[in-house]
Amino acid sequence: MQMAGDVSIAADRQHVWTALNDPDVLRQCIPGCASVTREADNVLLAKVTARIGPIKAGFSGKVLLSELDPPNSYVISGEGSGGAAGFAKGSAAVKLTTVGSATQLQYQVDAAVGGKLAQIGARLIDSTARKMAEDFFAKFVEIAESTSAAAPATETVAPAAPPSAPQSAQSGTRLLVVAALVLLAAAAAYYLSL
After folding, report:
1. All residues at 6 or more sequence positions from 109 whose CB lies less than 8 Å from its CB, including other chains
2. Which residues contact 135 (CB under 8 A, 6 or more apart)?
3. Distance between the two ends of the chain, CA-based, in angstroms?
4. 145-176 burial string, b = 16+ CB within 10 Å, else e?
5. Which of the residue ranges 10-14, 86-90, 101-105, 148-152 would you say has the lowest mean pLDDT?
6. Is 24 exposed, middle or buried (0-12, 13-18, 19+ CB in 10 A)?
7. DSSP labels for 1-46?
8. pTM for the full model?
9. Which pLDDT score is estimated for 176?
C-alpha cells in the first residue's frame, strides 16, 4: 500500500524539523495517541487507539528514524501490533524544503497490514489512512505555525494517491503513522498510530 503527499507550513525548516522530532508535538497530532516516548535518539515508541471500520484496537509501535539529514530529510520505518486486530509495518520518506518563507513537507509511504485489518478491505483502510493523515497535518500545521515567528499561514495540500497506480495499489495506509508515521510525518503519524 502506498500514499504520498505534501504540506506547506508557514514556519522555517529548522522549526518544522524540531516539531517533527518532538514526542509531545507528535502525541498531540496523532489521532487517538495516548503516548509517544523517545527510547533512543532515533527510536520512538507509541501507543494509539484507532478505529478502522468495525475494528477498534490499541496499537503499540516502535519507529526507527534512519538516513537522518537534519533539517532536510529522514526515513521512518516501523512496526506495530494491535494483538488480534493485526499488525502494520512499513516506511516513509520525509523531505523538507524551503519555499519562500514557508517549509514544504513531502512524504512517501509504503506500508503493509495483516490480520483482521487486512480483511476489512482496501477502500476502508485507504479512507481511514487519508482521514488520519488529514487530521494529523491539520493539527501539526496549527502547532508548528502557532509556535513559529514565520510568515502567515499557508494552505495545506491534502494527501495524494500515487500517480497511475492501479486501484488495488492505491489502498494506502499510514502511520505513522506512522506516522506517518509521519510520520509523520504524515508518514510518521500513521506509523506511530500502528
Report:
1. 1, 2, 3, 4, 90, 91, 92, 172, 173, 174, 179, 180, 181, 183, 186, 187, 190, 191
2. 31
3. 14
4. beebebeeebebeebebbeeeeeeeebbbbbb
5. 148-152
6. exposed
7. -EEEEEEEESS-HHHHHHHHT-HHHHHHHSTTEEEEEEEETTEEEE
8. 0.73
9. 34
Quote the cell numbers at residue 6.
505534501
Contact predicate 90/108, CB 8 Å: no
At 146, list the grid cell. 502557532
- The three cell numbers of residue 39 are 527510547
Region 117-124 average pLDDT: 69
Go through the domains of the chain in sequence order and give each one's CATH number: 2-193 (3.30.530.20)
Is the separation of the CB atoms in 176 and 22 below 8 Å? no
pLDDT at 11: 96
CA 46 to chain centre: 12
Q: Is the peptide bond before 71 cis (omega within 30 degrees of 0)?
A: yes
- The torsion angles phi and psi of 192, rounded to 5 degrees, stand at -65, -30
Write down the mean pLDDT value for the chain. Answer: 74
Which of 25, 15, 12 shows the shortest CA–CA distance to 185? 25
Cα–Cα distance between 65 and 43 in angstroms, integer? 6
Residue 189: closest CA among 132, 144, 147: 132
Mean pLDDT of 41-54: 84
Burial tier of 52 (Cβ tally within 10 Å: 0-12, 13-18, 19+): buried
Beta strands at 43-52 and 33-40: parallel, antiparallel or unpaired = antiparallel
